[in-house]
Amino acid sequence: MTITWNDSVPIYRQLQQRVVAMILDGALNEGDPLPSVRQVAAEYQINPLTVSKAYQELVDEQLVEKRRGLGMFVIEGARAALLKSERERFLREEWPMLFARLQRLGLDLKTLLREAGAGKDQASKEEQS
């Protein structure tokens, strides 16, 4: 996993967001262990306290749990909870701006779906080449 750090967001927050994305994408499933604090710190050459802070945020959000002597694990229901909160956040924060832009550009759902299909067809053709 390659990470390019954004200077305007604390590293622990970026790391926490990366783990959230991995859970949403299915790269980390319920019951899966998170990489150890030492492993992540060494891999990305960051302070172990930074990794611990990111992991603690995930515990506080009830997405992972600490198992004494074993490490951190994704809890049951984490993905469903994340999907719910991310969908709500998207509809509240991102969708109004996106919808307004689509209207300004004169784009409708039919056009968007056609273009999305065309993009998939093009990607499929490129893979076959």
Task: Describe the protein's architecture and organization.
- The chain folds into two domains: 11-76, Winged helix-like DNA-binding domain superfamily/Winged helix DNA-binding domain (Arc Repressor Mutant, subunit A), CATH 1.10.10; 79-128, no CATH class.
- The chain has a two-stranded antiparallel sheet with strand order 1-2.
- The chain has helices at 11-25, 37-44, 48-60, 78-105, 109-128; strands at residues 64-67, 71-74.
- The chain is mostly helical.
- Helices cover 65% and strands 6% of the residues.
- The longest helix has 28 residues, at 78-105.
- The mean pLDDT is 91.
- Helix 1 packs across helix 3 and helix 2 packs across helix 3 (48-60).
- The chain is elongated and about 55 Å long.
- Report the β-strand fraction as a percent range: 5-15%
Helix and strand content put the structural class at mainly alpha
The CATH class of the largest domain is: Mainly Alpha
Number of domains: 2
| Bulk shape | elongated
Strand count, sense and closure of the main sheet? Answer: 2 strands, antiparallel
- How many strand units? 2
CATH superfamily of the largest domain: Winged helix-like DNA-binding domain superfamily/Winged helix DNA-binding domain
* Average of per-residue pLDDT values: 91
Low-confidence stretches: none
The CATH topology of the largest domain turns out to be Arc Repressor Mutant, subunit A
Distance between the termini: 27 Å
What would you report as the Rg, rounded to the nearest angstrom? Answer: 19 Å
Secondary-structure element string: HHHEEHH
Q: How many H/I helical runs?
A: 5
Share in helix: 55-70%
Largest sheet, spatial ordering of strands: 1-2
CATH architecture of the largest domain: Orthogonal Bundle
